[in-house]
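#onboarding

Welcome to the new folks! Below is a worked example of what a typical request in this channel looks like: someone posts a single protein sequence, and someone else replies with the predicted structure as tokens. Don't worry about understanding the tokens yet, we'll cover that in week two.

Example request:
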Amino acid sequence: MATNSGPIKRQRATKACDFCHARGRKCAPKSDEAPDCVTCHDFGVSCTWNRVAKRRGAKPQPGKGLARWTLNDEKHGSRELVQHLIDLYFLQSYPVVNVVFERSFREKWHGDQIPSGQASYALLMAICALSAPRLQTVNENGQRDSLHVNPDIYLEEALAAIPNETTQMRSTEMMQALGLVCVTALERRMAPLLHKMFGFFHAALAEQGFCDEKQWKPDMTTIEREERRRLFWYMYRLEVHTSLVMGHVVRCPDLQSNVAYPGIPDELLTMSGLEMEWLTGWNFVTDLYRGMEHLITRFRLGRSPQSIDRRMLRTDFISQDHLGHQIMSQLNAAYDSLPDRFKTTTAFSSDVRCDRCGYQTANIVCTMQLVEMLAFTSNEATLLQACQTAHNLIDKISTIHPQFLRAMSLGMLQELSGFGQILSSFIGKDLSKSEYTKLRTVMLCMADLLQNLDGCLPAAGQSAKNLQHHVRDIDHFLQSREDHRVQEQIPLQPPIVPMADQTLSISETDLDPMMMIPPELLQTIPWPGEWFGPTDGMDGGIYA
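Example response:
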């Protein structure tokens, strides 16, 4: 075998001494026994290897790993601003969206334990994203000015921290972040993002067995169990609400859930504090939504044909003639047993606990009337009865302080959309003028209510104008028909008309098909639910 007789190439030293490394010189040992290198020997310096070796390979990039889930003043604003957003959440949103435990959250925040990782970072950003659109200050003239805070930044950060795999959503904080992003998407009218986050939430529910407390970890702390109960029932309410407003199905029904109601108040109650406890009212609102879910099922079942396909099993046996009465009798009894603080409206004050009771009162007023209207529909009520219920709701909402309505934002007033959709369901044929008169009164009263709320809800004023314009269009149509009918009857009128004939003529006029209101004019009524169409700020499609 041939061998390479050439000189062997000397290998490069893997590490130079400190002196050679600092000067970029070649470091070669003087001899095998001597510890010094040739260069250090020539310069008469000690040959050392004391410097810390650097890791080879790609350098770590900023924003990666744990450093990604930390606060940055340039991106998130100062810590004082984030603190202000947290305070605003607990002041305005928390009385309804109480998916966290306030005392525990504040202790972690002040102890610099939030954010401590991806999940807590997602939760913090979701809270800021919900509060940022509400952030306002009072200037020297007493007027409110919005601070220059971009809510999109917090929403983008929350979405970036939410993983795409349900196996990575098992922490309670990540589930809370999902719920708060759903609320933000609803209030900002981002329907695609709302459906996407709801999909993530329900996938995580199924993966964790969240709907059954028996499948929860036995070593779970009392506070974490309380937070999961709050989160579950609030998200259930949100789903029933959007089911009514947007028309989708309820994916997590009440009868298939086994989660207790929350029962631990945030405050360390004293004897005087018991009078300001508000969680009882919050739980009663959940009872209202549970009744609403069953009435929605009954409402839709009664309006869906049973023979549209080849189904062998009919479901009309679920329809109970007295379902609405049974639900309302239980809810009315529960309402009567509530403390008086949940039955009377109060002005907005500086007492946080008193205001939280006021939020429950406002929520009970709107939801109770909506459940009552749904109960009427299950018993084949008339349009006149539905209009009277809607009129009662508008009267009661008018007594609520606007600050409560503004803080509850679009969610509460979207229930007016639910009223509109239910009223529209009665309009399956032409309406007589007497029926339209009742409906017209409801439309104008709703427009007046929205007009009064324009200062605290910017979209309310435009919705009021849309309703008023639609009423004027129908009135113009009726007037033109009336003028046309009178002109046709003038040549045919006898010189003397008996009194009895005049009475008969008026009755026939009310029932005259020519004077009926065509359904196409009534099916296009711009109820406040039309707000849900366009998006505010970001386009929902980007995040969906």
